[in-house]
Amino acid sequence: MENKKLLYIALFIFVSIVGFQIYVTSKQPQVCNNNGGGTGAIDQQQFIIETLQQTIRDQERALNDISKKTNLIYDTVQEATGAKNGIRGPTQTDAPYFTNPTDRHIQKLQIEARINKTKTTLPNTCFPLDQKTVCLPNFIVIGAMKAGTTFLDFYLQRHPMVAKHTKKELWFFNSYYNKGIEWYVQYFEPVVSLENPKLIGEATPFYINNPFTAARMFSTLRNAKFIMMMRDPVDRALSQYYFSLKWIDNNKGLAPHISYPESFDTMIREEIDVINTCVRGNQEYIKKQDEKKRRELAGEPIDEAAEEEFKNPFFTLHTNKNWTFYKECARCDKCFQHGNILHTSGHPSFGMIAKSLYYEQIDYWLDFFPLEQFLFVRYEDLNDRPEHVLRQVEEFLGLPAFDYGQFKAKNAVPHEPMDPELRQLLVDYFKPHNEKLYRLLNRDFGWSK
């Protein structure tokens, strides 16, 4: 703005000087030329005036060009400094430097060297605790139950660059978070070589479907990598059912109150009913309550049969079943984000359907972690080509290739084939959920269709 004012002042002064010269010239006595009849002096004066006028026009154009360029530069500076529209930008001042450029560069290199030394002696998941160094996992197998997590963990534990743990399923982030980090790290191999640290991992397949695990890991292990094992949801549900029968046989002394479940067919149909209630039950109840109020205000009669429709399905639909946790559904407005429904119960057969709904569980975790931090593994691939899958896992974790020797099945439970009619019911039930998963991960897993 100051530059523009100076330009206009300069233009005014220049025009004033030229005008004064014209005025002085016009007042000078005329010299007569006997040969020109007095017209020579007039022509000369007219020529001078026109020349001066042309000079003024040229100078005005030049000043206008300078003014435009100045305005452009001014606007650019204002925009860059945030001073447009009345907002003043920061004042540019030459801050004093206390060191010369060479010293500053040396200082930068020294700081980088110190950081690199810390990384070498203290890996990114390690920290000092009570005068010792403890390390948290670099990777976790988060699910799913009966999808090959035991097999994968067993062979990864044989890799020389993977730290040993004393227990596969630690359940820290879902059940024992209140015990603290010190309790958690006691199950991992102590740090032996800080120069070549091993990767630390664990495998708790119930992490994926717990509503609190993702947030807890986000605050504790933000840069960890996650491996998600997934199996055809129909087969996974059946495998869990037979696993629960075996678990009850092996733990009668520890859990005498747990009874054997109903038939697989009955349990599946009941859980589908539970999930449908949990998903839509509360919304339907609210709609029916609104309808009841409308009828009452309109004076319309409500018979006993209609009165049954206005009862909350959370408390009435499942009272005749042998599970005791349906009351949890009263606190559940979404099946996977809130409450304990579909996450925990006192029965090992619980969640045969819910734990197979991979899309809903993974999609929730994407509120906390990007897809790049996940490796999704088909159980069928691990079963058919274990060495190929372990190469993928090694590449994902940054591990060198290792010869694991001969592969043997782990924690497999034999079972009877599924009834064809029930299988088709499950195939139809899981189909839309699987398709959402395929779109999310941009991958067709090729399960029952």
TrEMBL record:
The active site is at 146 (for sulfotransferase activity). GO terms for biological process: defense response to Gram-negative bacterium; response to yeast. The keyword Transmembrane helix applies. GO terms for molecular function: sulfotransferase activity. Residues 137-401 form the Sulfotransferase domain. 3'-phosphoadenylyl sulfate binds at residues 231, 239, 358, 410-415. Keywords: Glycoprotein, Membrane, Transferase, Transmembrane, Transmembrane helix. The keyword Disulfide bond does not apply. InterPro entries: NST/OST, P-loop_NTPase, Sulfotransferase_dom. It comes from the Eukaryota. Gene3D superfamilies: P-loop containing nucleotide triphosphate hydrolases. Coiled coil: none annotated. The chain crosses the membrane at residues 7-24. This is Sulfotransferase. The lineage of its organism: Eukaryota, Amoebozoa, Evosea, Eumycetozoa, Dictyostelia.
